[in-house]
Amino acid sequence: MAATDVSQLYDTILILDFGSQFSHLIARRIRELGIYCELLACNVKISDVKFKPKGIILSGGPYSVYEEGSPHVDPAVWDLKVPVLGICYGLQEIAHTMGGKVQRCDKREYGKAEIDIISPSKLFAGLSHPTVWMSHGDSLSAAPAGFTVVAKTSSSPFVAVENEEKKIYGIQFHPEVTHTPEGTMLIKNFVAGICGIKSGGWSMNSFIDTEIERIRTIVGPTAEVIGAVSGGVDSTVAAKLLNMAIGDRFHAIMVDNGVMRLRECEEASVELREKLGINLTVVDAADLFLGKLKGVTDPEKKRKIIGNTFIEIFEAEAAKLEADVEKKGRKIEFLLQGTLYPDVIESVSFKGPSATIKTHHNVGGLLANMKLKLIEPLRELFKDEVRALGELLKIDANLIWRHPFPGPGIAIRVLGEVTPDQVRIAREADYIYIEEIKKAGLYRKISQAYAALLPVKAVGVMGDHRTYEQVIALRAVETTDFMTADWFEFPYDVLKKISSRIINEVKGVNRCVYDISSKPPATIEWE
What we know:
Layout: E1 12-17, H1 23-32, E2 36-41, E3 55-58, E4 84-87, H2 89-97, E5 101-114, E6 116-117, E7 131-142, E8 148-152, E9 160-163, E10 168-171, H3 183-194, H4 204-219, E11 224-228, H5 233-246, E12 250-256, H6 264-275, E13 280-284, H7 286-293, H8 299-327, E14 332-336, H9 341-348, H10 366-370, E15 373-375, H11 383-392, H12 397-400, H13 420-439, E16 448-462, E17 465-478, E18 486-487, H14 492-505, E19 509-514
Parallel strand pairs: 1-2, 1-3, 3-4, 4-10, 11-12, 11-14, 12-13, 14-15, 17-19
Antiparallel strand pairs: 5-7, 6-8, 8-9, 9-10, 16-17, 17-18
Helix pairs in contact: 4-5, 4-11, 5-11, 7-8, 13-14
């Protein structure tokens, strides 16, 4: 039988997550080396893992191994007889399990440190830079029997230990962060050198063919698939993969909710249907959405109205498609979702599932009501991998690099009541803003930018007339993870041109302001 899990198609490193804020970075560094890896909770039962890993990495974590209730790996990990690398808490887990001693440091060690490599090691082969990043409150006070001390610092005598015969290695520092300059080389020494996985086996070039075959295996020769598309990079790339795998048996549905960006539905429709050949149905529901939003000012109510209305429309359209499909003697059996690997990591982390689910990424309610099986072709990919995949699939660069857009769309960028005229103002201002950012060559330097329409009016003068019109707030941020963000420092001449164009070209606006708030304490979106 053909493999239906990506981990069965590639040599795979297993990362066991003890709740470190850096765990996802370990996965990123390994993927960047062209080697496939998966991250699971530290307490997963090895018998439940669907693949035999070529090596295991134990992440850091905020716990103390000697305290009651602290997390520990399944003892079966050690029976696999594969190389193991413990990082920070992972090192302490190795020591605690194998008879070493771990104790609380007199003083927590956090920040850069200079290490002294005192014994030759395959793990440190080729490393010349002694600077590493520490973040720990516990440390080894005695190495387990059979382990050699490889590196130390002036304050920590057991920074790196190893048992070369058993291929078990432990380090007190974090090689996955950029503050450890040669950390990626150390990780490569482990996954490629010690575990013996050839770099480059995992790539988006190889992923296309294997994923298409995997989709065909999962869906089979007759089943049909439906999925919502928005014109964003995730849903577009996922839709194209389905199209390449099963052709018109994939049915894409785009719902025009009336609060998309200016001309976004029209442009996305052309890209999906005419350029990419995707079997697409566009539902114009703008009047229905705007009608339901009339008089609503609370942002959470806006979100719920848009989310619930979308589900109603999608299910109604799916029922029509299913009736047509059944006439051909076939059945819709699968629902496409554009889930990415960071969403998976969040759900499998030792800290447990997130308390909040992004309803615009994972459409709640659809699966339960429609009794469809999920198919998630991007489930194992990070965002940059999705973009690289999009480029290989010849998807338009403007779409691939488009900034994130919230599920409720312009509705939460119009502060206050959402009316057709308020949407027009916000759309037109946003279009000019993004157009000028692109002209200035700044678009890819900014992580997210948009124009918000404030529910206030200001006095102004245009020509010989006094005006009393609305205010546009411009927002632009730089971020790597969207958990924290800094406001973007525009050249003044660019801001000046943007403001001038918006005030002169958008009817109903006489003032622009630029938001210079960082996250936290502010959020990226205003609502």
